[in-house]
């Protein structure tokens, strides 16, 4: 008979959040911690997303942990934006350096978790049927980890290989001499298409909605630049934490239409030439006001028309369905110019969706496009997908996925009423996906660690979000979104990419700096909005 293993805390996921949780809870609080990870290595998103061209859209020097000065001083990044292999080797370095692997169980999925009211503990059930218990359960499952291939008719009839960008084969894929279909033009498609086009015989891109993309201007990181940033790291990190997006960007010029036209254009020219997502923050009101938004949007349209030689293709690539910045802006290398290649064809799905997948390709508008391989760059069941995939049962056996049937409900994006001693990293209701993820992850993990430390000190065995506090937070998250243009886009932030998913704006738009202040204030006020129950008050057996 198997024995149920007991820990102080169980963490689900060994990406950047799970690794840092393990370090803080084990090494700073002295807890026994077990991390379950379905992959056979650390890194989460960066473990799975091995598609050609995969690269972070946040600069290397800031897409990195700040908790260890030795680590941040010693690690050397090679490029302005880190490639997937480099981020993965960084994650592995961190795992070795902080001896994380010894408490991570790889190739292990958590199928379910149930709270026991009598003992104030969670019992998780693993995919081999075994169980483990802990007082605290912390989910670190990522926001874009439930990859999704749409339910295309005939999908199983295709005789060639198919790939999803978020489940790329570890040994890589050789597209030499092959005709490749890429479905999807989000960040993943936009990064992969130029690289696949360099290798494949032909690439046919199937585009439902064009996206705004700005040049990365990726380049090797010079030693001087690295030294300069490292010398100023403390201040730069503090500035990033206090900022809206967890990244320090050049200040906005003011309201777009109040800025003199010449200055407006030269600022956009400057940002386009500098590269990176800071392009969208040239003005204060780009995501707040339609007319202001058009200034930056039309600037990108002009650049697309300039770069892409075929005017019809250029027009198809110009995003007109959503305001710029209301879907995460893509950061690319040679994306638009790729459409000037002889071996790249754009098929717009605007008027004709993919009718079906056949044994030899895709049928659109009655026309068969024959290909040898299909790449699905079709995205994720974002934010709620990875959590709803686990059967999480709180008080009285209530299921988290039932509680969230009409859209996710959390308090501060870290806890849920009815689910005591459960903490979630970067869940809906937090600003994480709108930010530099690592800044958000460190903030969440530090806050959760402090909350657990407080409970341990005070002899608290149960910490639970109050329903009223949760309702107020959900209302605040909705309110923050309602003042912006974000809900105008059919984005994964809104759940709009999944048929039948409730249309709720999931992330918190107040900014990571403001959010941090709110979380700190909640803690200072004795964890306002949480019910803290001391040991004697619960029915311990
Ligand atoms: P995204 O951004 O969700 O992009 C998915 C793409 O796939 C997008 O262009 C979709 O078109 C397209 N798609 C999805 N379903 C279909 C169907 N049924 N037919 C045709 N096209 C479809 O995922 P990514 O992986 O690129 O990026 C995710 C995040 O990673 C990104 O935001 C960054 O934060 C990093 P749609 O726009 O829905 O019309």
From TrEMBL:
Give the family from UniProt: Belongs to the FAD-binding monooxygenase family.
Instruction: Name the residues that span the membrane.
Output: none
Name the cofactor(s) required for activity, per the record. Answer: FAD
Q: Name the species this protein comes from.
A: Streptomyces mexicanus
Q: Which UniProt keywords apply?
A: FAD, Flavoprotein, Monooxygenase, NADP, Oxidoreductase
Q: Which InterPro entries match?
A: FAD-binding_Monooxygenases, FAD/NAD-bd_sf
Instruction: State what protein this is by name.
Output: NAD(P)/FAD-dependent oxidoreductase
The GO molecular function terms of this record are:
oxidoreductase activity, acting on paired donors, with incorporation or reduction of molecular oxygen, NAD(P)H as one donor, and incorporation of one atom of oxygen
């Amino acid at each position: 008979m198997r024995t149920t293993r007991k820990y102080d805390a169980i963490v689900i996921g060994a990406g950047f959040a799970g690794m840092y949780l393990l370090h803080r809870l084990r090494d700073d609080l002295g807890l026994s911690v077990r991390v379950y990870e379905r992959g056979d290595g650390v890194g989460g998103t960066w473990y799975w997303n091995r598609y050609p061209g995969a690269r972070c859209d946040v600069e290397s020097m800031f897409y990195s942990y700040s908790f260890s000065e030795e680590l941040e001083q010693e690690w050397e990044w090679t490029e302005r934006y880190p490639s997937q292999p480099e981020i993965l080797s960084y994650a592995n370095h961190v795992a070795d350096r902080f001896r994380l692997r010894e408490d991570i169980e790889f190739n292990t999925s958590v199928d379910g978790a149930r709270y026991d009211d009598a003992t104030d503990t969670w019992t998780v059930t693993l995919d081999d049927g075994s169980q483990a218990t802990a007082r605290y359960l912390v989910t670190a499952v990522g926001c874009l980890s439930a990859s999704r291939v749409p339910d295309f008719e005939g999908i199983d009839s295709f005789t060639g290989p198919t790939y999803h960008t978020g489940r790329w084969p570890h040994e890589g894929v050789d597209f030499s001499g092959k005709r490749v279909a890429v479905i999807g033009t989000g960040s993943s498609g936009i990064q992969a298409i130029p690289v696949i086009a360099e290798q494949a015989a032909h690439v046919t891109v199937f585009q439902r909605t064009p996206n705004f993309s700005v040049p990365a201007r990726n380049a090797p990181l010079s030693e001087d630049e690295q030294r300069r940033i490292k010398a100023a790291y403390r201040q730069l990190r503090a500035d990033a934490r206090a900022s809206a997006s967890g990244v320090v960007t050049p200040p906005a010029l003011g309201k777009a239409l109040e800025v003199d036209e010449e200055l407006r254009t030269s600022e956009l020219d400057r940002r386009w030439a500098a590269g990176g997502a800071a392009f969208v923050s040239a003005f204060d009101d780009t995501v707040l006001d339609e007319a202001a938004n058009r200034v930056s949007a039309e600037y990108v349209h002009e650049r697309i028309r300039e770069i892409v030689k075929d005017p019809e293709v250029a027009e198809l690539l110009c995003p007109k369905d959503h305001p710029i910045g209301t879907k995460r802006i893509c950061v690319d290398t040679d994306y638009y110019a790729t459409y000037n290649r002889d071996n790249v064809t754009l098929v717009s799905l605007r008027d004709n969706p993919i009718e079906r997948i056949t044994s030899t390709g895709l049928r659109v508008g009655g026309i068969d496009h024959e290909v040898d391989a299909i790449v699905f760059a079709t995205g994720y069941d974002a934010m709620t997908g990875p959590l709803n995939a686990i059967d999480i049962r709180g008080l009285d056996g209530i299921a988290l996925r039932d509680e969230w049937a009409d859209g996710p409900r959390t308090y501060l994006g870290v806890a849920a009423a009815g689910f005591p001693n459960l903490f979630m990293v970067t869940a809906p209701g937090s600003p994480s996906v709108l930010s530099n993820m690592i800044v958000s992850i460190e903030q969440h993990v530090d806050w959760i660690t402090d909350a657990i430390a407080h409970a341990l000190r005070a002899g608290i065995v149960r910490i639970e979000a109050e329903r009223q506090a949760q309702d107020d937070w959900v209302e605040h998250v909705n309110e923050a979104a309602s003042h912006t243009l974000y809900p105008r886009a059919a984005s994964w932030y809104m759940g709009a990419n999944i048929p039948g998913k409730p249309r709720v704006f999931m992330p918190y738009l107040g900014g990571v700096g403001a959010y941090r202040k709110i979380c700190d204030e909640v803690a200072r006020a004795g964890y306002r909005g949480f019910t803290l129950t001391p040991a004697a008050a619960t029915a311990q057996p």
